[in-house]
Design a protein that fits this description.
two-stranded antiparallel ribbon
Length: 279
Amino acid sequence: MFGAMGLVVVLVMTPANALAFLPARVAGTSSAQQDQPDAFSRGIDAYNQSAFEEAVRWFRLAADQGSARAQFNLAVMYRTGRGVPQDQVEAARFYRLAANQGHMGAQNSLGIIYDNGEGVARDSVEAASWYTLAADQGHATAQNNLGVMHRDGRGVPQNDGAAVRWFRLAADQGFADAQNNLGFLHANGRGVPQNYVEAVRWYRLAADQGFADAQNNLGVMYGDGQGVPQNYVEAYKWFNLAAAQSHGNGATNRDLILDLMTPAQIAEGQRLAADWRPR
């Protein structure tokens, strides 16, 4: 919290991120070793040319021959309504076909739709099971999602230590959501000893990628002087960057800290924010 002229200003820290789902996209190019490589590659070519109905036709041909990547791509098409009417039940069916063949992207996606109840009955236990299969293969998004389940005790027993382990695996792959989540656990002493310096390190890694939650949280650390020397200019910079992405807490915190800054400090914070580039 900030102290100024006898007043106490409390900044809101964004909670650790909820489940993350990478933007829907079809699987990559085919190879001669895959089932129905000609059909699959033609589907990719059609998709890249926005000929979605043609892409569906080729992916379906490959999927009918057992290609897990084509099954995954058909699921994406049904989920997004590209080339076919949007149908979450069909999306779930094709995700399952691919997931049962070990396709880790499909396993993670199937976990998400069970978590959200999209095309299937909501089932946190089933969601956690699919996340685990993908996470064990090294899928960073699934590792982050499984960390959320352990942190919140949904579908698995609540276990902050397990959450830290899964977040760390994803964070070490550069996954910003997990880096922010790991920073939050370090800042709050959940599953690890409270360590503000370590929290700042993880927040910064995510904030440097442009992740708005982490930018807000890093601003809080600078504003409170936790893990770093107190620096209102740096705090303002990070709040401003988060607010520029329509981050509600970032905008609130930016406005709160203004009362503690001189005009020169505000101008410097604005300059730093304008000069910032993602890494």
